Description:
The complex is a heterodimer of chains A (181) and B (727). Chain A is mainly alpha-helical. Chain A has two domains: 16-109, RNA polymerase sigma factor, region 2, helix turn helix motif (Rna Polymerase Sigma Factor, Chain: A, Orthogonal Bundle), CATH 1.10.1740; 112-174, Arc Repressor Mutant, subunit A, CATH 1.10.10. Chain A is 69% helix and 0% strand. Chain A has eight helices and no strands. Chain A has helices at residues 16-38, 41-57, 68-86, 95-108, 114-124, 128-139, 144-151, 155-174. Chain A is globular. Chain B contains 22 helices and 15 strands. Chain B has helices spanning 5-20, 25-46, 51-74, 79-89, 93-129, 135-142, 145-183, 196-202, 205-210, 215-223, 281-291, 303-307, 376-387, 416-427, 437-450, 475-486, 504-511, 524-533, 535-539, 667-682, 693-701, 711-726; strands spanning 271-275, 323-332, 335-347, 358-365, 395-401, 405-413, 457-464, 491-497, 516-521, 541-552, 557-563, 583-586, 590-599, 632-641, 648-656. A six-stranded mixed beta sheet of chain B has the order 6-5-4-7-8-9, with helices on both faces. In chain B, strand 2 (323-332) and strand 3 form a beta hairpin. In chain B, helix 20 (667-682) packs antiparallel against helix 21 (693-701) and helix 21 packs antiparallel against helix 22 (711-726). The longest helix of chain B is centred in the first third of the chain and has 39 residues, at 145-183.
Amino acid sequence: MKAAVQIPPQKSIMTRETFSGLVRENQATLTAYARMITGDGVKAGEVVQDAFVTAWQNIGKFDVTRDFSSWLRGIVRNKWREDCRRSNRMITMDEETLEATEGVIVEWQADRPEVFDRLAHCRSQLPIILAKSIAVFYDDQLSTEEAAVRLDINGATLRKRLERAREALRQCLQMKPTATT
Amino acid sequence: MKPNQEQIEEQLLDALLHEQNRSDREQTLAEIEAALDREINSIHVHARPKWPKRLGLIAASIALGGLTVLWMNRFPKDKHSLTMHEHAKSPQPQIIDLNKAIRDQENKVEEQRQQLAALVRTKNVIYNNENQNNEDTIKRSLDAQDYGDAKKDFIADVELLHRMKLKLANETKANDTVALASNAPMPPAGPEKPSEHVRSENALPQITQIEPRTEGKLDQFSRSDGARLSGAAGGVWSKPDATRMRQLPVDEERYSALIDPSWQRPIENPLSTFSIDVDTASYANIRRLIQEGRTIPTDAVRIEECINAFNYQYEPPAGDKAFAVHTKLATCPWNPNNLLVKIGIKGREITREKRPASNLVFLIDVSGSMQSSNKLPLVKESLKLLLHQLDERDSVSYVVYAGSEGVVLPPTKMTESGRVKALEALDSLEAGGSTNGGAGINRAYQLALENFIDGGVNRVILASDGDFNVGVTGNDALVKLVKERAAKNIYLSALAFGTGNLNDSMFEAISNDGNGNYFYIDSIRESRKVFLENLTGSLITIAKDVKIQVEFNPQKVGSYRLIGYANRVLKDEDFNNDKVDAGDIGAGHTVTAFYEIVPAGLPQPNEGGVDTLKYQESAPKAQAPAAGPSDEWLTLKLRHKHPEGDISALQETVVKGQATPIQESGSDFQFATAVAMFGMKLRGMSDVSAISWDDVRQLAQSNLKDDPNRARAEFVELIDELEKQSR
Lengths: 181, 727
């Protein structure tokens, strides 16, 4: 397994290249987190971009004894709150839910890029019709209606298959992941 | 209801699945990297000491400079130190070049990002439209070379942009050191060393952080971080590569195709109907293209907008009338047998003091493509001009849009404190991200509606390069949206900025048909014209759906054609149909139109161009009716509605009498004719092929009276430039 990019102990040696490595390392998982709390893929991308910029601006304030991805998630949450305030939207997730989410992230190690490898492995265990439903809906980014047409099934059937697939994946991800470096 | 553990897990899984195989991952990462680099550059610009500190520095520098002079006078001139001193004083051409190259590269990256996004959209279209049996074909098309190549090019160009910015940071750092060294007292020999104190005052921590990225490290960057990136940009960046740093050609700007009105015979088509056009954007854009030495796309030339870009001394209407109509007939300079009819319309004037209160919503594009100095910075300067013209009657708000939209300034009255707030909010804007113009427009109209002033000016002022690439992107969808809002008396002013990716087609589409007006702002001077000299005209609509219909008398007119207004021609039956939209006119605006006429009895254009029919007799040529007044050339009818009305009013004017020789037609007629010739030549119309640029210049130059803003003189200079370029 590829070693994670080491977080430098001091700001003075945090180079742009090192930070780029951290961006690459955390972008996908952080966007997934942002998507979860914002409920919107486009908004998630914007919030994550802003969060990385803010992290870079404040890299000197980062406490190296803390987990970097956890720090980034905190920035994402703040960015999301700011955005909600600016546009007079209600913040949809309360602190309790956010805390519970942190628990799931830790349990699944969903802040590590390797979570996608495990997810891929879980997907490979799915029955073919469920795997295809997931592929068409998520990978090809089709709506349920479009995906149903594509698979030549009706919308309700597709939704049911997706539900079954997600349940199977959820259980698969709950299994203790193997230790990562 | 709070989600339970299972639901939280479900939501997280859903988000992970969405992110797992995203095809645009590299693009997203590149955008983040670009945002980080912008941040570095922005810090570099803003990280200088605050003003009082800077004053101290300046004082210190002056003192040190004085000491230097004294010191240097004590010793023979040292060639090296003199060079350094001069170097510090002179502008830094390499940095200016680098800045320009970076701007060009940013434009290129933005453009490629859009191409990539378009390909991704195409992918979805293919999926949606094809059936399952073609799955293999579809997959092949998705993996097709074009997508892969576009992605590779994009990544390579983003990487090149990073390198250029780093180079700029290092260059600037080096120059700062040189400048500081030149201001420090220098010993007659030995290496110069800037004062530690001064250097620490000017230290830029962020730049210091990236300073260790020497060119060798850059190379390392391309091998490690960029290992999976295209090798196209590999190697050490030394200077802008001419082959990669190409200028954005004009043909990447978007113009709608125009077809000039053709010759018509009154005996067959006695009516000519068109909507007025008060916009002047085309002329400002052509001026920019000429001044930059670029090729002028034919479709960028809207002749009527060139003619209407100048002031003409038309008498204003008497009493409460909305318009005064002026007509004149003279000989045609490019064909002495033909005549020109000039139709001049002058809208009622409203003084600034009497203008109604305004509810202005500025919709400002702050997407990545707006970074160039002739875009967002010019938007800010232009809007500042306007803000200073407003007073406590007026309310201003800002909506900005990039990837998403937001209200930066809620509706704020233009009291002294309100103006300060508005100016500060304007200064805080920075460009970055994609361009969801559709969402921004919706938000701006919503704000305008919430703060609607009855009987006032309710207007959304869009400032953009027109590069809408996310959301409601189609011209038709935008036009529909803008039309719906115009029906609620919220009008649109479109201000176009910048070069390279100007979407003239979109601006023209959304501001046509009574939805608003369109200006191209290429300089602060043009801003002054729009916001200072013509403020009331730009903001206050005095009439809407203004249409003109001309009926030609076949006894006098053998053929006619309308010059310009190529995209404003209406069906004849639309003239009396109040449901059909047409152009608006602002307070004090003038509109000028020309018809070229071939008098009856002379050889007509297009005669003899068609072979005799083989299968049937050719239709007998219609004969001019003997009846009717023989001294009238034409009757002009003008319809318009009150800005808040639905029923149009009609005005009629008859043109009769003898044509005046062009030499005696007056200054305005001659100058407007010169501008018409300018437009016709740029559009490549064969009728004026025998006319030289010198002929156009001479006709214009002899009519430079009443030109307080030097607009006419500048026109002559443009012709000189065109003449020079054509040699």
